[in-house]
Amino acid sequence: MKKNLTLRLFAITSVFISIILVLIMSFQSIFFEKFYINKKMSTLKSEINSFKITYSYNYTNKQALFNSMQSFEKNNNAKIAIFSNKGEIVFLSDPNKQIDAIILDMLKESFFTISRNPQFSAILSQGSVITKILTSENQSINNIVCIAPISLESTNDNIIIAVSPFQTIKEASSVIRDFYPYGLLLGIFGIVLLSIIYSNLISRPLKAINKSALKMANMDFSVQCDEDREDEIGNLAKTLNFLSLNLSNTLKELSKSNDKLKEDIEKERRIEKMRKDFIANVSHELKTPISLIEGYAEGLKDNIAEEEQRDFYVDVIIDEAHNMGNLVSDMLDLSQLESGSFKLNIEIFNIKSLVEHIIKKLTPLLKDKNIEIITEVENTFVEGDKFRIEQVLNNFISNAIRHTTINGIIKITSELGVKKSNYSMPEYYKTKDYLFIEVFNSNSNIPNEEILNIWDKFYKIDKSRNRSGGGTGLGLAIVKNILEKHHSVHGVINKNNGVTFYFSLKIIENDLIAYK
Description:
The protein is of the alpha+beta class. Among the domains are: about 170 residues, PAS domain (Beta-Lactamase), CATH 3.30.450; about 170 residues, Histidine kinase-like ATPase, C-terminal domain (Heat Shock Protein 90, 2-Layer Sandwich), CATH 3.30.565.10. About 55% of the residues lie in helices and about 15% in strands. The strands form two sheets. Strands 6, 7, 8, 9, 10, 11 and 12 form a seven-stranded mixed beta sheet that branches. Strand 1 and strand 2 form a beta hairpin. It catalyses: ATP + protein L-histidine = ADP + protein N-phospho-L-histidine. InterPro entries: BphY/WalK/GraS-like, HAMP_dom, HATPase_dom, His_kinase_dom, HisK_dim/P_dom.
């Protein structure tokens, strides 16, 4: 049997269901009647006690009393009566005391049988509820009798008695016994049905094993058979699992080593390319100022320049040294921002005041080109690194001045995120919690193919790198790093008559400012 899967399943199912059926039948035969009697006695006792509490010194509404007695009889399949202490019937469930003579005799017999007990008076005086099983002398019927004192006019001046015949208990037990053959047939049917199902299930693990074998043939060892048994199918599954596991582990190790090698090679290539690009860009940016400084310095040394040109030579040297200093400063700034150790100094500041401060500093440049500047920035407090956001605004506005023609327009505005549904950004930015700052300049556009590249280091739209255009090519790369560290939505959009740079900052409400 241990080696035959179908027979083993059939035997286990048969034994299991048979044991359950035997246990159910045994429990019913041995314990059910006793359990039912105890439950019945407990229920009668509880109901009598409740009835006693309800109508003690409170039976003025006799119709309600009769209704309660009738409800008691219906709910408990019992007969109830109230006797005086002398054995006289005071109340029956029928107001006219119309009752079957046999039932009346049963009530009286039960009362007088219990009342003859020597301890009856003592028990009743304590207010106890007595429950017993009595056999009727006239009819040879066992009854459950429940008796308790009740105070109608004075303390314990009457007695309640309830009688429930054993007949209903016997009938219930008999009905259950009559059901045994049907239960047995149902059990046999269940055994046969489950055996058929188990027999059909044998094909399922075989299909799984076949599927795994086909994948192994195609060099896929990731799938294993979940078969843990001692029969033929289990042994085959274990063998395939062992083979698949070993081959899978080997392939995984090889794949990891290969991926690691590819990553290392790709990393080396990126580092080498970055190194070459960095050297080429720095060399290109430094070559011109160094050449100019060298040339004009030699001219001064050799006294080539006349007296009125010497100041010009010195100014050129100073300007180029300043440009070199700006380039080195920007390189250090970008290096610091790109390092993982850099941390922002987050504070709360007024964005309108910051914009006005920057415009005031750049006023001479605006006047040189007669540029009209318009500011419509909300008087709003935002959260961020004020020094770094000043760098961002200074870069955007300086670029706007640089690329705006004479008599052009620069417009600096702000709007809530809820009004910026046209921007590509996560939904939570499109709320009143974020402020978008925009810097627009007229008379210039960025070629569409260049927009994604302007944030790269040393990238300039002017491929000739004309020095008259100004800038080191690092400004927007620095801006990008600053805004990314602020988790800010930022970008650039071409307009019909110009270009707009924008970024977002989190708004801080006035009550939060006061709290902080």
